[in-house]
Each structure stands twice: as structure tokens, then as C-alpha cells.
Amino acid sequence: MADVKEKKVTEKKTAEKKVTKTETKKEVKTENKEVAKKETKTAAKTVAKTESKATKPADKKPKKENVEAELSAKAEARYVRISSRKVGIVAKLIRGKNVDEAMAILEFTPKAGSEVLTKLLKSAIANAENNNGMDHSKLYVAEVYSNQGPTLKRIRPAAKGSAVRIRKRTSNTTIVLKERN
Asked: Strands across the sheet with 171-179, in order?
């Protein structure tokens, strides 16, 4: 008889547990629904606020923009087989100079980057004169910069059967010319 009473007691406990589990699931579902309703209400309020702001007339007058845009001519040399650091050294020398002065500087600079920049400057001058109709005597180097391009990776045999990585760097160089007033 004691076994029968114990079984009934355990059955009641397990039944209570099952009921509480299902009740909690239902409570969680109802709470989730309530949270979702609150979120949709707040979203609707924010949408209404933004719509009302958009429909209100603007108190401020629009600012007058500068109608005259500065003409500029640009030339790029991409994937040139020289390090951007080497080109950057020479680029600092011609930044802000007149075109003719920059050409003279590049001609007499004994650096590897001067050859690349000379070709690029000639191209930029041709772009300015032919495409934009700019005056050669008023041109100056407004911007000149050299960024790193993709690096070619090669392997060289080294001591004890090992290998050493050789990095053959490339550069992307840009020159922008503008007219002086």
C-alpha cells in the first residue's frame, strides 16, 4: 500500500510540473506578443514623427552654392613597378609648383620616381589642354600623391633549403592640375 501512495504522490507532482511548464510557455508567448505590439506602436510613432518633420515647411532658406566649379585635369598611372615611397619623395618636390617649374625639377632630379612623374605630368598637361581647354601658362600642380598598389610576391632560395620572400612593390600615382586665378 505504501508503494501505491508513493506512486500517486509522484504522479501528482509530475502532473503539476507538466502544467507549470505549459503555463509558462503560454505566458512567454503572450509576453512576446505584447512586446511585439509595443515595438510596432513605437515604430509607427517614429515614422509619423519623421513624416511630420518632412511635411513641415523649412524655416531656413537654402544657402547659395558656389556656381563656378574649379576646372581640374587629372592623370593616373596605375600598377607602375616602383615603390610608392620612391615616387613620394619626388612628388613632394613638385607639389604646388607651376607646370613648367615642375617639369624642370623632374628633369634634373636623379631619382627613380622622377621618370614616372615626368610621363604622368606630361599626360596631365595634355588632358588639361585638350579635354578641358585650360591655359598652359596658368596650370599648377594642385595635388600629387602616390599610393601603394598590389605587391607581387616572389620566392628566392636561401640557406639550409629555406626560402625568402621577395616583395616587388607597385604604386598607383595621381596628379591633379588646376588653373591659377
From this structure: 72-80, 171-179, 139-148
Alpha-carbon 48 to chain mean position: 33
pTM, 2 dp: 0.61
Q: Name every residue whose Cβ is closer than 8 Å to that of residue 126 and which is 6 or more positions away in sequence.
A: none
User: Is-contact 97 175, C-beta < 8 A?
Assistant: no
What are the structural domain ranges in the chain? 1-55, 72-179
Q: Which CATH architecture has domain 72-179?
A: Alpha-Beta Complex (3.90)
Tens digit of each residue's pLDDT (9 = 90 or more) over 2-56 = 555 555 655 655 555 555 555 555 565 666 666 666 666 666 666 555 555 555 5
Under 8 Å between Cβ of 117 and 82: no
Structure confidence at residue 112 (pLDDT): 95
CA 63 vs CA 55, 58, 59, 66, 70: distances in Å? 20, 12, 12, 10, 19
d(CA 170, CA 20): 70
